[in-house]
């Protein structure tokens, strides 16, 4: 490495070592608080137990915040040069595209499933007595002739 | 190496520029040094490895998300014996271990090898605690017949005639096994085979339970197969499944049934969505646990080393890997335990 590059790296290191330990402690405390926050959705004080999607969105936001804290401070990405974008952005895009590709075909497959297929699927909780699901009659429960596939 | 390549690159670049630009600077080429990537080869390799790991876990987690939300139903944690507080505790343990790794790096950078070794030991202990808790959790699943695959798995998706038949078959098998055991024991004991022999008594008690349950299950199966009214048929099957293991309605009210009271019974259990749950849970947590194990092996190898400033780069690299393992758990915890 050249003198210049060395000097550059050193100044970075020095800058973040100054507040190193204290910063790690702050990040640690923030991570603990955020873990408590996602665990809060489990407690009886969480007001949205009847609307799980609110809890899911909240927990994902908390998880992303925690992930950013770990990546930026513990993995020192905040102090790295621009090469970090070359590795992280394509991998991040790949993750997002993967979900986008899978959701319509696989994730939402239950929304337009054939009636015959739905007969062998597990019944939603509490719906064992209620007949209709996905717009069709739920006949599987009272007919054991095709039960082998349910396992 | 990086120096030479960069130098040559900049040289060629300079020639091209000046040649086409025609500014007459050929004789006074001012070579500018372009540094290569400002990171060591080891760290570059670790980051490249981590980018493949991001895609690997993104694939697994993405698949979990679409399977879970595409499923007609999904077990609540109490049904599959998942404990949210234990999951939160494990999250806390991994966060602490991430902190101990960065503190180890800071100590090594200051050439404080003793402190660095202490932090490595703490990290190793915390990682082991995480794996120990994970093993305890797996054990709880296995004890309740929750496996990712047959023949160990006792999970059935719903209470139908197929389920009732499986319960009856299991009870019949137990009955003939206990009967055989009883006659073998009587033969072995000879004259000592009295009613107050503890071994014999236990066997007879078990046989009585199995016989009673078999009669009940048979009656319910017959009702389910022959009664004209579909509501009555289903009610008979529900009562059978509920007696073995009640479906909890919410987090707090998980009542235990026959399988809990007599763990040797191991009757088929009804968990809607349980098979897919078991497959995804064991796959995700299993791959994560393998990553934790690899980290622990490296930390164990680090213990005899002198962790001075010369090792700082190495510690940073294993630290990056360990933080990534923590990162994956940060997403797995809410997805698996709280969703």
Summarize the structure.
The complex is a heterodimer of chains A (151) and B (339). Chain A is built from five helices and no strands.
Strand content of chain A: under 5%
Major sheet of chain A: none
Q: Of all protein chain pairs, which has the greatest interface, and how many residues does each chain bring to it? A: A-B, 72 and 82 residues
Total strands of chain A: the figure is 0
Order of helices and strands of chain B: HHHHEHHHHEHH
Measured between the Cα atoms of the first and last residue of chain A, the distance is: 62 Å
Describe the structure.
The complex is a heterodimer of chains A (151) and B (339). Chain A has 5 helices and no strands. Helix content of chain A is 60%, strand content 0%. In chain A, α2 (20-40) packs antiparallel against α3. Helix content of chain B is 71%, strand content 1%. The longest helix of chain B is centred in the middle third of the chain and has 31 residues, at 113-143. The radius of gyration of chain B is 31 Å and the shape is elongated. The chains are: A mainly alpha (151), B mainly alpha (339). Chains A and B meet through α1, α2, α3 and α4 of A and α2, α3, β1, α5 and α7 of B.
